[in-house]
Amino acid sequence: MELTLAVAKLAASDTVFDGWIHSFGNYVPRRSARKHRNSAWSRAVIRAKHRYEGVCQVFGHMVADHLMQLLCDGHQWVVTHVPAEQDRGWLFTDMGRCATEMLATCIWKELSQHMDVVIEPLLVQTRQKIKGQHQCAGTAERFANVQGLYALAEGKQVFGRRIMLVDDVMTSGATMNECARVLRDGGAAEILGVALARTVHPASSSPLGQQS
Questions:
Q1: For 74-93, how does the pLDDT look when each residue is reduced to its tens digit (9 = 90+)?
Q2: What is residue 136's DSSP assignment?
Q3: Residue 194 in contact with residue 21, Cβ under 8 Å?
Q4: pLDDT per residue as tens digits for the range 157-200
Q5: What structural domains and CATH numbers belong to the chain?
């Protein structure tokens, strides 16, 4: 309860990455222990990754409140999530429900009270990554590491649909861009990305997502 109340006091930064991904704060990795502990946003994101329902609900309300100001066009939107990594699924999944799915569900529940929105798991991960994204040397290697990693789930159609793609933490944008590529190749009319936070360099506190 105390943690949930603390998260509720966080203010979204309303930052936008690359024009189509909306992120709401900065995440300091736990390898920078002191800066991570001193970042309320970073600690809250970790709780969301571990599926603390109260924290996910607060984030869902925060994100939905921001998006409702953007999506007043009368069109239906489909909320979907970046699939959990198969090689680390034991950490972030519970009976098949991963952290990003829980976050997407919380955002959808909030939005559905005010607009035409549905939720569907549209994407699947087709294989394990060669290495974790955090093990990649730079942006180019991060993008190469996820190339061809995702596909549309069996029987899913996205042609002409407007899709909201939800992830928890974005570093280079490689994962979300690869997921978006699959959706665009399937004919999606519009894609809007949502990430709770962008990873920052512990030394400089500059968002990694802004680097080339």
A1: 889 999 999 987 544 434 44
A2: -
A3: yes
A4: 999 999 999 999 888 888 899 999 999 999 999 999 999 888 88
A5: 2-210 (3.40.50.2020)
Strand partners, 80: 165
> In this structure, are residues 87 and 129 in contact, taking their beta carbons and an 8 Å threshold?
yes
Cβ atoms of 139 and 211 closer than 8 Å: yes
Instruction: State the helix-helix crossing angle for 99-111 and 40-49, rounded to 10 degrees.
Output: 100
Tell me the CA distances in angstroms from 184 to 29, 131, 144, 154, 178, one per residue in order: 31, 26, 19, 16, 10
How many angstroms from the chain centroid is the CA of residue 68?
Answer: 17
Q: List the one residue out of 172, 210, 198, 175 whose CA is nearest residue 28.
A: 198
For the chain, give percent helix, strand, coil, nearest 5.
Answer: 40, 20, 40
More reliable by pLDDT, 160 or 1 = 160
Give the Cα-Cα-Cα angle 98, 102, 105 (nearest 5 degrees). Answer: 140
The C-alpha atoms of residue 36 and residue 29 are separated, in whole angstroms, by 6
Question: How many residues are there in the chain?
Answer: 212
How far apart are alpha carbons 200 and 202 in whole angstroms?
A: 6
200: three-class secondary structure by DSSP: strand
User: H or E stretch including 210?
Assistant: none
Q: Which helix (H) or strand (E) holds 101?
A: helix 99-111
Q: Amino acid identity of 113?
A: Q
What's 147's DSSP letter? T
Confidence of residue 105 (pLDDT cuts 50, 70, 90): very high
